[in-house]
Fold:
Amino acid sequence: MAFQFEPGVVVETFPMLLRGLKLTVVITIGGLFFGFILGSVAGLMKISRSLFLRKLAGIYIETIRGTPMLVQAMFLYYGVPMASGVRIPPIVAGIIVIAVNSGAYIAEIVRGAIQSIDPGQMEAGRSIGLTRSQTMRYIIWPQAFRRMIPPLGNQFIISLKDTSLLMVIGVGELLRTGQEIVAVNFRAFEVYMAVGIVYLVMTLGIAKALRALEQHLRVLPEK
Amino acid sequence: MIRIENLHKSFGSLEVIKGIDLHVRPGEVVCIIGPSGSGKSTVLRCINRLEQPTSGRIVVDGKDITDPKTNMNLVRAEATMVFQQFNLFPHMTVLHNVTLGPVKVRGLSKAEAEKRGMELLAKVGLAEKAHNYPDQLSGGQKQRVAIARALALQPKVILFDEPTSALDPELVGEVLEVMKQLAREGMTMVVVTHEMGFAKEVADRVIFIDGGRIQEEGPPEEFFSNPKNPRLRDFLGKVIAH
Structure:
């Protein structure tokens, strides 16, 4: 029996994916929200004057970047409860994995952006009597943040796509939902195409939104 | 106002300042000249502790800044600095550059700070640029904003670190004009400069630093017309020839 592509199935699949899409969006937004906080803290620790904080952030970043996210997810969801005796709901585990994973990459983005700001800016801030942290907050961070936007956009897209890996810990996200549909109708070609299209629309949306934000901030000139 | 006693500063094994004593009185304008690499900027940067002195004592406005207990943030607001590269905050308007310190450090209300900020911008001739960003200004205008930003803190002394060295020659005059006006109004100023004309005209005292030591100091008339130190004679010969 020859394969016959049925575009109608692709179209029919979209509404069925809605439930999974919601979860993907929730986990991506939740994960990146905490990931950005975690990454900012780790990035600042990486340039702190305290050797201890620098080392601590270094260990975190290297460990996470040096291990596959799939392993991190399975370790957290299946491994950690064995030691702690506490089971974590899959969605919560998913958000934690995305946060901890993206945080390590965002830390490097934050560190790089802050270090790219002319040291004269810190000196000027200190010279008008601001403390180190005030200078960071009012002078360095706002300038560094603009430089973070393009690499952050990349990381957001990567993290969104990485949520698909969470199907292995039973999160009923987009890809998992697609898989369940295939199990019923056997239309793997059409269903996974529809799944791919949904991811593509979202990643293009993120790219566009961040470009708009960049444009908006660029209205205020930077040297 | 500023008393420096036996200041030493090393970067690693390189000793840049080899024992400097300097006393600046209130209202005095002291110009520091010397070849590049002589350590003159480093002296200035030790006064507000952007550089940590290796040894020696520096007292600014009665506060020993070499004492770790001293609140350096307040000292820095009293002895603020104008930089060669201006170092304006590019993401803030000109007015915001000027009001940030008064609001965050001096605790002024935004309205008060803006009122005074506008007065100071008018004083340096840039009131109409208040809502522009630093990028939209020429180098000379940027440096005048930087001076207004320093004045906004109502400091006891302003440290100028080669304020005209990064400027196109035709823009130097407007910055020196503002500095002369400050000097006339009695502002205490320590100026590291290559502008011999300015030093001659405005300084109460000129100091020549070379090799990390003060080689000669004196009132400008005597300093420039009758230099005793051979290194100073050599230096002045090179500078004035241009």
User: Anything to note?
Assistant: The longest strand of chain B covers residues 14-24.
